[in-house]
Amino acid sequence: MIGTYGAVLSHPGAKAFTLAGLVGRLPISMAGLGIVLLVQASSGSYALAGSVSGAFMVANAGLAIVQGRLLDRVGQGRVVAVTAVLFAVSASLLVVAVQAGWALGWVYVLAALAGGSQPQVGSAVRARWSHVLDRPGDVQTAFALEAVLDEVVFMTGPVLVTLLATSVHPTAGLTAAVVAGAVGGLAFAAQRRTEPPAHPRESGLPDTHGGPGPRPRLPWATVLPLAVVCAALGVLFGAAEVVTVAFSDEQGRESAAGFLLALYALGSLLAGLVVGTITWRSGPDVRVRWGAAAMAVAMVPLAFAPNLVVLGVLLLLGGASISPTMVAAMSLTEASVPRERLTEGMAVMQTGLVAGVAPGAALAGLVVDHVGASQGYLVSVAAGVVAAVAAQAIPRRRGATEPSAPLASS
């Protein structure tokens, strides 16, 4: 396993942009929560804190695809550098606005600016891997590595921001997210030798038919159902997080929720590590379909967990279906989307994932309030079913296999 990941990381510049990308996307799991903790500490209102964080998240999801398009057209270095600075400035002003008691209008505007300008480092890193690596199996391994690093981000970010905001100062959590986004983003942007070439709208570059012309279209027949799969996965995440907290509270151990969610992320992390070492005989479209179905099935037992111990085991096992599905979805995006629009395609998937979290959390909260915590997991089950149905709409790819590292087979 170590040798498999070491092989892709041995490419010139790979370790540097991977590390910068890891730091640069820490705000994904830190900024929203940091805003909640900051605004709540200043105003005493969770409702206000949630609405300000919501403005950040909506702007982030709404402009991610636009930013992805710019990354392809203008180039990663320029776009990530500019957005990293804009994110740092607007988020810093948001901290000042909250602390100084500026008018709420300014708080919402600055939150939206910060969300909209947060660098889309995750999409850029995956597009860069696709540019640096030649073998499809190596790209598959690199995407598995990124899925694992995503889990690391979501395991460590919330813990770090909560610790800083509650133990140091209410501003410390969001400030740490700002520093990570700016430093990581600028470090990533500075690495030009591994940067994919830009593809301006009228670049004169050959299109998919070999002649000069406009940029090729996105294959929406594949992209749209894949985006639905990712959005359903976001709903599944958001619902599972809320319900796990509620279930822990019902059992009189609310503090156990963090540990249980860490087990969920750990299951996904371990599965992601394994996925990167497998020689797949099936194409990514097949694996997306099986992975989405597995997610739906894995969520069902959660609704019947009698206690926290059993729930922890089920969350660990259920998490194992997450990374394989995400890796397959990103691999299929990489294989289907024209190179000139790859970062934009990746951003569509990331946007779907992010956009699903808040509705999933809200719907699960309604179910918990009316019928109890355990039944709230049925929202995750329903999201898994939606993902499985959407995955069936993905066009079949004939003869698509992905040779990879010779450590295992499936």
From TrEMBL:
Cited Pfam families: MFS_1
Keyword Transmembrane recorded: yes
Ranges for region Disordered: 193-216
GO MF entries: transmembrane transporter activity
Main location: membrane
Entry keyword Transmembrane helix: yes
Transmembrane segment boundaries: 16-39, 45-66, 78-97, 171-190, 223-247, 259-280, 310-333, 345-368, 374-394
GO cellular component annotations of the record: plasma membrane
Subcellular location: Cell membrane
Residue stretches of biased makeup (Basic and acidic residues): 193-204
Location of the Major facilitator superfamily (MFS) profile domain: 222-410
Alphabetized PROSITE patterns for the sequence: MFS
Membrane topology, record value: Multi-pass membrane protein
Source superkingdom: Bacteria
Key words, A-Z: Membrane, Transmembrane, Transmembrane helix
Name by which UniProt lists this protein: MFS transporter
Organism annotation: Nocardioides bruguierae
